[in-house]
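4.2 Preliminary Data

To establish feasibility before requesting continued support, the project team ran the inverse folding procedure on a target of 244 residues. The structure was first converted into the token representation described in Section 3, and no sequence information of any kind was made available to the design step. The complete token record follows.
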């Protein structure tokens, strides 16, 4: 195990499965201490066990990132346990959609809350801890839907467009304080949601969770004065340019 992130502390939201779990394991292998957050305790505990097996200290804190009180409690627990935060990975999200005239307000609010409001609330809380340190790195998990939406995905496209705009605004506000903010836009990733829905590997080009986790690791291990502002990572054969 290498140790490029030894003694650093990372908060990862949506860490119980999929991309969040993959990034958590990638950071743990670099010696980073972790705060794992999500809504399902049993999934977080399973990932925490994997992290501890690598010899890394980990804190588990359940939270709904769309709720201000939950986010404040998450970062209070982080400060109490580790006294700092060096990295925030805003990975928590939700997907819902359908034809525009059938999208409910509840579906809209759920996706916007998890993807966009949660990213704002967690970034604000992390910024408050990073600012006195004059250092820190915030990585937002966006989507290629932030640039080329698919049909029947209005809430998700709007949320991810918002995440990319928020990334740029945070990067600008954070720059004078030695903090960087970046956005990683994944294409199709073979996460649990897709496999559980019965998707076959030949239905559409997919990449592994490990592939996107390694891309995140590249962005998070750059020198502190360098910002990899935006990255688009997708399967070679996925229709992105010219996608319909």
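Position-by-position output of the design step:
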């Amino acid at each position: 195990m290498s140790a490029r992130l030894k003694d650093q502390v990372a908060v990862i939201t949506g860490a119980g499965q999929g991309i969040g779990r993959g990034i958590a394991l990638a950071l743990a292998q670099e010696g980073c201490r972790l705060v794992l957050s999500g809504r399902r305790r049993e999934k977080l505990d399973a990932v925490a066990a994997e992290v501890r097996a690598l010899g890394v200290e980990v804190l588990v804190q359940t939270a709904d990132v769309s709720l201000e009180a939950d986010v404040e409690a998450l970062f209070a627990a982080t400060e109490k346990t580790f006294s700092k935060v060096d990295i925030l990975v805003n990975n928590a999200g939700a997907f819902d959609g359908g034809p525009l005239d059938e999208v409910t307000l509840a579906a809209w609010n759920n996706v916007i809350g998890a993807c966009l409001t949660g990213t704002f609330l967690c970034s604000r809380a992390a910024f408050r801890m990073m600012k006195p340190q004059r250092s820190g790195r915030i990585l937002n998990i966006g989507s290629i839907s932030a640039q080329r939406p698919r049909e029947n995905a209005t809430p998700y496209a709007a949320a991810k467009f918002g995440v990319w705009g928020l990334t740029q605004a945070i990067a600008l506000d954070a720059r004078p304080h030695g903090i960087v903010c970046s956005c990683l836009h994944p294409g199709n990733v073979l996460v649990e949601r897709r496999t559980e829905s019965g998707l076959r590997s030949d239905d559409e080009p997919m990449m592994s969770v490990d592939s996107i986790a390694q891309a995140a690791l590249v962005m998070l291990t750059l020198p502190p004065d360098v910002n990899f502002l935006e990255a688009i990572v997708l399967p070679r054969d996925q229709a992105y340019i010219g996608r319909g």
